[in-house]
């Protein structure tokens, strides 16, 4: 099986206690941590993470507008 290479673009992330919180795919200005969807379904706003003491930065992540599964494309249009 061939793996598709997706361009990575700098995106805002937050670092808190060694964990990286990345932008949610369908909710604007929401960030999720490791295990989101399987072990944890919480998401945080920029303000909440800042109040916790998280440090904002950027990190090269896959472009969320490229090759989203059809289900997520529909959800993103509805937000």
Question: What is the compact description of this entry?
Answer:
The protein is α+β, with helices and mostly antiparallel strands and 79 residues long. It has helices at 46-52, 70-78; strands spanning 8-16, 19-23, 30-32, 44-45, 55-62.
List keywords for this structure.
79 residues, 5 strands, 2 helices, alpha+beta, single chain, globular
Mean pLDDT: 83
Radius of gyration: 13 Å
Indicate the low-confidence ranges by residue numbers. Answer: none
Beginning-to-end CA distance, first to last residue: 34 Å
One letter per element, helices H and strands E, the order comes to EEEEHEH
How much of the polypeptide forms β-strand, as a percent range? 25-35%
Q: Looking across the biggest beta sheet, what order are the strands in? A: 4-3-2-1-5
Biggest beta sheet attributes: 5 strands, antiparallel
Structural class given helices, strands, pairing? alpha+beta
Principal-axis shape: globular
H/I helix tally: 2
Question: How many beta-strand elements?
Answer: 5
